[in-house]
Amino acid sequence: MELLPTAFLIDSLSVYKNLRNDPVVSGLYNCVLKLYTTASANDQLSAVQAYTSMCHALYESEYNGNLADYLFDLVLYDVNVFTNACARGEYEKLSQEIKSAAATDLEALCKLSLVTDSQIKAAFKKKFIHMPELIDILPSYSISHRQYAAGSEWGENIETISRFYQENGTGMYAKYKAFLYDSERGILPVHNTDPIRISDLKQYEVQRQKIIDNTLGFLEGHPYNNVLLYGDRGTGKSSTVKALLNEYGDQKLRMIEISKRCLSDLDKLIQEVQHIPLKFILFIDDLTFNENDDNFGILKAALEGSLSTRPDNVAIYATTNRRHLIKETFSAREGNEVHRADTIDENLSLSDRFGLMVTFTKPNKDGFLAIVRQLAADRGLEIDEQKLTSGAERFALAKGGRTPRLAKQYIDHLEARMKLNLEIL
């Protein structure tokens, strides 16, 4: 396309108007605007600065200087009236005016994705007629399209794009599946998540199946429970929860980890996600409370629903190593029976609000060695079984226990030594 209409196309955006604030889009806009609407040398130099700023933003992105894929990425993850309606499955309910405006914007953005660095440099050469060799050394970018079919018009594929929003949601919730909650910065996406799958976790099949069944009920809109995973350290409680996301993330499951220190914001967090057409597990790892901890009551109210109805797209999954969620101080243990009874009642009042409580205990020797054998088989380690198990026992003895975590650590240790051709201890 011609370079001159580029600024007009950006100005014409209505439904996808937010994209005008993107550094690449605004850089392209300012570059073209200053090239064609001003004559002063300073403004022409500003056009160069706008162009290099655009290239810098492209290089810093995950698309490494690819304008076409970068712009298509903006389209897929924008949040606006059109994308939100599609995410709710309400594409057909949208007015024709909004559909038409969205299609027009998509066509405009598709045309922008075809603007080449050669076109921009040619325009610079017309302005800087005495320094063509300097224009040639300006940075370049690509417009090769890898995210969509070659020759396809985005506006003509509006229904296909609408289905993407319906299946994946919008904004960062479409792009990422795991998040952390921070009291000051809010919900933050996790770029590199633990890739663990259910199949990577050995033994404890009965416990995991209960959690899987509950999660599937949650995803399919059936009755479900909040879940408390209780048991010894290193038995795979947290790994089980994280593996759920890798198994069911493509079924609209998202996970937000919230630390105990941020529980005062739990109600605020629930309100923030309750109208998003996705399913959210709020994950609290290693849950315990001190006596008179305000967060105890906050969590209890959230589990109960307090005065408001619990949203059907939010579930709370927590892990704990403690049989009693409230830590008793020495003075409390020395106190009277009434106080101890109250503490026990408080523990039960919170535990009871987790409709599903699943217990993970340390495996015995045979169970531990079974995990070791399964992990070794998964890794394809060719080693004498007697050597494998005796080494595992020595490793467990040195570490002071037998857990699935220690079994994995042993196999990691063993595999590394085998690949380095070192003696197996």
UniProtKB/TrEMBL annotation:
SUPFAM superfamilies: P-loop containing nucleoside triphosphate hydrolases (SSF52540)
InterPro entries: AAA+_ATPase (IPR003593), DUF815 (IPR008533), P-loop_NTPase (IPR027417)
Matching Gene3D superfamilies: P-loop containing nucleotide triphosphate hydrolases (3.40.50.300)
Domain of life: Bacteria
Annotated AAA+ ATPase domain residues: 223-364
Protein name: ATPase, AAA family
